[in-house]
Every structure is written in C-alpha cells, then in structure tokens.
Amino acid sequence: MVIQTLQCRYCQSEKLIKMGKQSGHQRLKCQDCNRTFQLEYTHEAYKPGVKEKIERMAHNGNGIRDTARVLGINKNTVISHLKKKRAK
Ligand SMILES: [Zn+2]
User: Fold this and answer.
1) Which residue of 30, 48, 57, 61 sits 20 to 30 Å from the alpha carbon of 22, by its own alpha carbon?
2) pLDDT, tens digit (0-9, with 9 covering 90-100), for 28-52
3) What are the structural domain ranges in the chain?
C-alpha cells in the first residue's frame, strides 16, 4: 500500500490528530475545521470520479480485473460497486 500524506478531506489541512479506531478504521480529526473523518476515504476507490469510471469501463466491455488494474483499486471494490448499481 502506498503511504500518502494525510490531509483533511474537507479543507486539505495536514493538521490532523488521531481519534482512535472505530470498526477497524482509523478516525482522524482536523484541527483546522474540527471535522472528523475516516482514513478509509483517502483510498483510491473513494475519490470523486472513480465510481463513474467503473461504470464507464463496464459499459465499454472492460473486465472487472482490467477495471481494477487500470483504476488502481481492488477488484472486490469494482464487483461490489457494480452489484450495488445493478440492484437499483
Ligand atoms: Zn479540515
């Protein structure tokens, strides 16, 4: 896993303090905007636009493995997203 510089997901501040773990995810608090968030959201699959890319690639006939490799996310993330999409 690539180590990223931790930033607030709301204001991009790097002044973060650890708030302990909740359901296995590190929770962080931003000292600038006082908001808390999970580290999990800094992962590739949660970034804006990734879900749209998964859908676009699926429509273009790309396999799940291809999609996961190109976007740099886990194939299980691709599968679960497509399943959620189909359930609607
Ligand atoms: Zn912040």
Assistant:
1) 48
2) 899 999 998 876 555 555 667 888 8
3) 1-42, 44-87
